[in-house]
Amino acid sequence: MRRLLLLRHAKSDWPDGYDDSLRPLAERGLRDAPEMGKAITRAGLIPDLALISTAVRTRQTWELVGPQFGKQIPSQEVNGLYGASEKTILGFVHTAPDEVQTLICVGHNPGMERLARSFAKSGNPDAIRRIEKKYPTCGLAVIELPINHWKQAEPPAGRLEMFLTPKTLEE
Questions:
Q1: Cβ proximity of 76 and 95 under 8 Å
Q2: Can you give the pTM of this predicted structure?
Q3: pLDDT digits 0-9 by tens, 42-89
Q4: 3-class secondary structure for 118-171?
Q5: Each residue of 122-168: pLDDT tens digit?
Q6: Domains in the chain, ordered, with CATH?
Q7: Which long-range contacts (CB under 8 A, 24 or more apart) does 30-35 make?
Q8: 39: Cβ–Cβ under 8 A, 6 or more apart, which residues?
């Protein structure tokens, strides 16, 4: 059994003159990301490896989420995650080492949402309903996969265990 965490970057700013990949987190993103890290820890979902898009906002998200786990998590910045389709993201998931039980990918929409939704055919009904409605910034899909090797991860074989958002953390 493996667990895949798909984390959309926290809320970003839109400063004039910035290339999209260089946009930093907005004030709300700076608040939400550490809270999501704490929620991941409380849920016992600490990853063994993080794959992170090279965009500024995803790296900043990870820099705020990661320290909440209380231990250093190996991470890799992956250039191909920036603007990646769900198929491309899944390709990176397939490359995770077999010793990794829980993998987190920190990336962007629409790829993150589409991949999460492709796995959300079964699981927690409330989480499925909410993920079909909206995948907001700093949203986290937790997918349980009945596989032994990451290269076997293929939708829809999986179960949406939970879907956390900054709004659900406030409730």
A1: no
A2: 0.96
A3: 999 999 999 999 999 999 999 999 999 999 999 999 999 999 999 999
A4: HHCCCECHHHHHHHHHCCCCCCEEEEEECCCCHHHCCCCCCEEEEEECHHHHHC
A5: 999 999 999 999 999 999 999 999 999 999 999 998 999 999 999 99
A6: 2-170 (3.40.50.1240)
A7: 30/60, 30/64, 32/137, 32/138, 32/166, 33/60, 33/61, 33/64, 33/65, 33/138, 34/64, 34/65, 34/67, 34/68, 35/166, 35/169
A8: 140, 164, 169
Residues 6+ apart with CB under 8 A from 128: 120, 122, 160, 163
**C-alpha dist (Å) from residue 169 to 15, 33, 35, 124, 128:** 28, 11, 8, 17, 17
